[in-house]
Write a structure and sequence with these properties.
By secondary structure, the chain is of the alpha+beta class. The chain is 36% helix and 28% strand. It has eleven helices and 18 strands. The longest helix is centred in the last third of the chain and has 24 residues. The chain binds adenosine-5'-triphosphate and magnesium ion (MG). Adenosine-5'-triphosphate binds next to helix 5 and helix 6.
Length: 346
């Protein structure tokens, strides 16, 4: 019997969710990028879903945190612990033969990229390859990016909105905004405080967004949810109904920032490629693309057809998975970064 010790894994280390693909198997981890640890003993208590349940409900000696912020490693030690736990739990035997393909946001600095490489090496990978998230997302969405035509992909994540024009296996131009799903939740928290005089936490804001959040009205649909929070004046618990129309007004401003950035990106795109984008449409992925009516408002603002890719939450990790499976075919997409003006270090 022949043993194959070589492991190839694809990783999407997201602000909200960590996803891991194992070559030959598929997605093996798809869990919140959250780690809970005990400050007294300095021990990790839980990661992923278990840790998420503790978020915002922890006693003082327990801290639950997200080590990835806006798609970038914010707490290196905690990120390493998180990844190590996920890998160990999946019995992924790390060895000097392990190859990791990791998706990273566009326009990272050299230092930020190095930090991702170091992280993977510290958890045991012998070879680390980085792929820019829009390229991985486009691959995972089965866009034929090798062709001499251009695609515009918008990844609406939790910590960042990444938008990029892709052509012939490369990113022609891209923008990254820190306005994404988490920011929408913060706007919901702010508005319930200012308008409804109710104090709510992040999990409730997320619940509101998922249940009644809309970017544009959806025909024949009227949504309502009853939420609980702390009354700002009395300090006591109170229940309040929240309707889709209300939430829509709360989300107008951040969504406008996103569509304006998209317009700006299109204005900076070479004219031939704009023609391609018009023909091919705009493709949206990431959890934020599941917000009802997001396609309608983008379409209205920029006048180009918008589609949501299939399985928008996992397209990036599935893209890294495709690289795992057919490494030779996609090798040219790896470690192939667009250099920002002024950041040319060599
Ligand atoms: N049905 C939905 N409607 C609106 N937002 C949603 C929906 N489902 C998920 N989201 C939001 O999508 C975000 C998570 O998306 P995703 O998993 O793509 O992020 P991520 O990859 O972890 O983050 P990033 O790419 O920014 O690092 C969260 O902010 C979540 O609230
Ligand atoms: Mg993401």
């Amino acid at each position: 019997m022949a043993f194959n010790f070589r492991k190839t894994i694809g990783i999407d280390l997201g602000t909200d969710t960590t996803r891991i693909y194992l070559k030959g198997t598929g997605i093996v981890v798809n869990e919140p990028s959250i780690i809970a640890f005990n400050n007294r003993t300095n021990r990790t208590i839980a990661v992923g879903l278990d840790a998420k349940r503790m978020l915002a409900r922890t006693p003082t000696h327990i801290t639950a945190l997200r080590p990835i912020s806006h798609g970038v490693i914010a707490d290196f030690d905690m990120a390493r612990e998180l990844l190590e736990r996920f890998l160990r739990r999946e019995h992924l035997p790390w060895s000097w033969l392990t190859r990791a393909i990791v998706s990273v946001p566009t326009n990272l600095t050299e230092v930020e990229r190095k930090s991702v490489e170091d992280l993977l090496r510290e958890v045991g990978a012998s070879e680390v390859f980085l792929i820019e998230q829009p390229l991985a997302g486009a691959l995972g969405s089965h866009l034929d990016i090798q062709q001499a035509t251009a695609y515009l992909l918008v990844d609406l994540g939790a910590g960042a909105t990444d938008m990029a024009v892709i052509s012939m296996n490369g990113i022609v131009i891209s923008r990254r905004l820190k306005i994404a799903g988490d920011y929408l939740n913060q706007e919901i928290i702010r508005a319930t405080r200012d308008e409804l005089k109710l104090h709510i936490g992040e999990p409730t804001a997320e619940e509101i967004k998922l249940a009644v959040g809309t970017a544009a009205p959806v025909a024949g649909e009227r949504l309502e949810i009853v939420i609980r929070g702390r009354d700002l004046t009395s300090g006591l618990p109170r229940e309040v109904p929240v309707r889709d129309v209300q939430v829509r007004t709360w989300l107008v401003r951040p969504l406008k920032v996103i569509t304006e950035a998209l317009k700006d990106l299109i204005e900076s795109t070479p004219p031939e490629l704009v023609g391609d984008v018009y023909k091919n449409g705009v493709h949206c992925c990431g959890g934020g693309s599941l917000l009802r009516g997001i396609d309608a408002i983008i379409e209205k603002e920029i006048g180009v057809a918008v589609s949501i890719v299939e399985e928008p939450l996992t397209c990036v990790v599935r893209g890294t998975g495709m690289v795992c499976e057919q490494f030779d075919q996609f090798e040219s997409l790896l470690n192939n970064f667009s250099v920002m003006p002024g950041l040319h270090l060599r």
